[in-house]
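Lab notebook page, bench 4
Experiment: in silico fold of construct C2
Operator: M.H.
Input chain length: 313 residues
Purpose: comparison with the prior construct
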Amino acid sequence: MPIDIDAAVAQAVRAPSSHNTQPWLFERADGGLRLYADRTRALPVNDPEDRELTMSCGAALMTLRVAAAAQGAGTEVTLLPEGEDSDLLATVAFGGAADPARAALAPAIAARHTHRGDFAAASVDAEIVERLEAAAEAEGAHLAPVDSDSLRAALADLVAEGDATQWADPRWRRELAMWMHPRRMGDGLAMPGAAVPVARFAVRHFDMGDRIGAQDADRARAAPCLAVLGTEGDTPRDWLRAGMALARVLLVAAEAGLQAGYLNQPLQVAALRPRVQRLVRDAGQPQGVLRLGQPDGPPAATPRRPVDAVLLP
């Protein structure tokens, strides 16, 4: 059965990305697809090695595979066919039997949203946490819950330190402001158009690291589930796998009525990332810090670029 590639890509681009940059491009190739990194959407201050950019593309790749499975198609994926320095991150051939476990996750694609607010106080059931861990393992990564109060407090302190370091850097603030966009643009940190100039001015000119760090640290300590996603290695191939694992974890979470927010600040500061690794050893090389729970209100969908902007002929 031929696959509707446009429909599959429309689902794939719902994947999360840093600052909602959506740094991916798809190209048709012999009935399949090529996935490229769109480095014009890189964040050189926040993500100087393109680690999170590559993870974002991995998340889109996983979401594509789920969408294809829902159409009844299997996917054969080759990662980095031209090597780790190429913008070509993966090739995807469609065919064969669909994976029923991936197909079952398809309804969660539209339900998944990044949650930036607080969570309801309800705890996350241990059986769901086990499913999230299994979802990460299925894609070659590890999800390590941070359960003890002492570890949570230590990780929360690193989150606050990461916030303070980033906000103290005028280059980082300018880059953040640059990605504050009106919702109509379809990408970036979307907000009402009239609010954009004021928000950009405030971010560029004021160091709000202490206040935001304290808020983020509180959210880390209060999260119904706090976890670190990691991989054995720390190469572009590992980053792709981390992105695929992240997407699968998020879809399993959404299926269970949970959403995730991110506290990646200590992983985005080079001096702090090794400290996260030493703190949460079970994760391996840390690639993401997630807080998961039931949103305290209805989640808001983040805008996406249209398919014709990301799918090359």
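Observations: The radius of gyration is 19 Å. The chain has 13 helices and eleven strands.
Next step: discuss at group meeting.
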